[in-house]
Amino acid sequence: xxxxxxxxxxxxxxxxxxxxxxxxxxxxxxxxxxxxxxxxxxxxxxxxxxxxxxxxxxxxxxxxxxxxxxxxxxxxxxxxxxxxxxxxxxxxxxxxxxxxxxxxxxxxxxxxxxxxxxxxxxxxxxxxxxxxxxxxxxxxxxxxxxxxxxxxxxxxxxxxxxxxxxxxxxxxxxxxxxxxxxxxxxxxxxxxxxxxxxxxxxxxxxxxxxxxxxxxxxxxxxxxxxxxxxxxxxxxxxxxxxxxxxxxxxxxxxx
Length: 255
Description:
single chain, globular
């Protein structure tokens, strides 16, 4: 595995990985989610080991959540039920990490991509605020988000559906997502570490991404502040639709 040797730190592969991470973090900082949806299909083009890509994105996602919290800590606006959402995600994370050892990349891309694309399409052509989601179902959304995060590093779609249906403002949406990612990220990175997925080379690779994470987070913060509420919601679902289609097409081409 090329990433396992720090001597190859600045080869073309590393530059590609840093570029992908920069784009992913820019999307995450702008919309509050989407870094894994951007990074995973692109990283799987250059990193053959799915578990390695998942572990790297999980590490970067945790750092990104910490950076965003550090920038926005004075104006956090968390949604009601955030503690329930985060708490219910933890057993889902455990199940997802276990499932990661049994899923193949083609199955991952097809199932996940199809699901994400359908959610994105429905959100783009209908009004998600009319979707009736009772408050007592918040835990189910957290459980599903945790499972998808543990298995595929993609927590976002269930949280997007919940947030838009409950009419979270862009600021509330972004803050709640980062609270979730910060807590879930600690457990997720810990799970990958216990599974032995972090070696010296992969940790070094993550360290090389740090400057790009900070710059992309700052740039996404500026973009976020300039997005009107309605355009923000539409953009979120269009991002889901596009990235879901990318995953499906990538799976078809791979097969």
